[in-house]
Amino acid sequence: MSNPVVAERYALALYQVGKEQNLSGQIDEELKTIKKVLVQNPGFIGLLKTPKLSVDDKRNLIRQSFPNVSPAVINTFMLLADRHREDIMVEVAESYINLLNEERGIAEATVYSVRALTADETKAISVVFAPKVGKQTLNIENVVDPNLLGGVKVRIGNRIFDGSLRGKLDRLGRKLTS
Q: Which key words are in the record (predicted)?
C-alpha cells in the first residue's frame, strides 16, 4: 500500500477520535505545529528510523519531543513508530488538516506577491478566490517573490491563478511568437 493511502487511513482514524472527543480544532493546531517542526528538522524522522533505536526508545523520544500534545496525537505517532511508519508522520498531519479543512469549507492557498500582503489584502484575496474553488474561505500562506514584478499569483491545490505582471508578459510573449 502506498504511503499517501496509509497516511490517509491514520489521519482518518485520528480525525474520528478528534470528532468523538471534541478536540478537532486542538488536534489541528497541534498537527500544524508538529508538521512545521518535522519539515524544518528532517533529521528527527531519520533518527526515528534508525534501526539501532528500539521501539520503546522511539516512543520515549516522541513523548519527550512533544510533551504538550494531546494523547490522541501522541498515541497516533507512537503507533506509527510501533509499525515502522515514522516516515509518514508529515503526510498524516497533512491528511488530517485536509480532512478538517474539507469539513469546514476551507482550502489551503499560497499567494506569491512582490511584497508581504496586509491583512486586508489577504482577506480580499480569500473572498475573491474561495468561491472559485468551491470553498467558503482560504488559509493563505504569503510568499514574497520579487521576480513577479507586480500583481499576485495564487495557488490553490493544483490550480494556479496567475495575475502577476511577469505572467502577463510571458503570455503576451507566447502569443506574439505564435
A: ATP synthesis, Cell membrane, CF(1), Hydrogen ion transport, Hydrolase, Ion transport, Membrane, Transport
Number of domains comprising the chain: 2
Q: What pLDDT score does 64 carry?
A: 92
Q: Which helix (H) or strand (E) holds 111?
A: strand 106-113
Report the alpha-carbon distance of residue 25 to residue 69 in Å, rounded.
13
Q: Is this model's pTM higher than 0.85 or not?
A: no
Residue with cell 474561495: 130
Same domain, 37 and 95: yes
Distance from C-alpha of 121 to C-alpha of 114, rounded to nearest angstrom: 13
Is the separation of the CB atoms in 41 and 92 below 8 Å? no
Q: Which residues of the chain have pLDDT under 50?
A: 1
Q: Which three cell numbers stand for residue 6?
A: 496509509
Q: Are residues 162 and 95 in the same domain?
A: no
Query: What local confidence, expressed as pLDDT, does residue 146 receive?
Result: 87
Is residue 112 located within the same domain as residue 167? yes
